[in-house]
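Q: Structure tokens for this one, please.
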Amino acid sequence: MNGQKLGYVYFEDEPGADVAKAEAYFERALAVARQQQARSWELRAAMSMARLWRDQGKPQQARELLAPVYGWFTEGFDTRDLKEARALLDALSS
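A: Here is the predicted structure, written as tokens:
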């Protein structure tokens, strides 16, 4: 199970989840995706972290993480991931 999924499991499925632990899992998922130059996985991990930060009242930090990752894409904007990323960015801007 990758770090992103562990973060989801820990943060979303555990009552009273430890936010710092979920954040660490998402950071690990980001690091692995970056190391492997897996842009789609990095986008997913960035969206997960951005949602966590949004829910923690850190919308600017969330946007600063997600915007550059989203900006790398030049095609595929009709895919689910990129549509969700755009919607999240829009929500973080308002």
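A few notes: Residues 19-35 form the longest helix (17 residues). Confidence is low (pLDDT under 50) at residues 1-10.
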